[in-house]
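Fold it.
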Amino acid sequence: MRGGLMMARNYTVQTKILRPVADVFDAIVSSDRLGQYFVNNTSGDLTEGTEITWGWDHYGENTIVVRKIIQNELIELVLDSREWEKTQNEAYEVLVIFEFEKLDDGTMLSISEQGWKTDAEGLKGSHDNCSGWTHMAMCLKAYVEHGIDLR
């Protein structure tokens, strides 16, 4: 807390993937491909302005809103804090940003999350999702580079 104001919790995780940007991008927006390494089920492809439900056998379902997509450059998703942390606390939006940077030998994928409050639930949500997005990035890397499902 600074000056009596609660600061939002933010983080970024990155990984280098030895595949072209278009392939990495498609593996995230395509529901068929996303289900090969990350979620157990999804209600559809990521398209701007849509609400999508992702499901995991071990965790349940979560809804995301696709705020913005720039082909092969950017994906912005909005999460509902209450739904993602399965609490009764007041809900607020959390922003997830996927950025894709073309490298000579592949893609640098950055996943940032912004907006978690710094109360106990917000810190837990931030830490849970940081490890979750790191897991997703590693599973994506194994899938697009080697066709392996790490789950």
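Helices lie at 21-29, 31-34, 81-85, 120-146.
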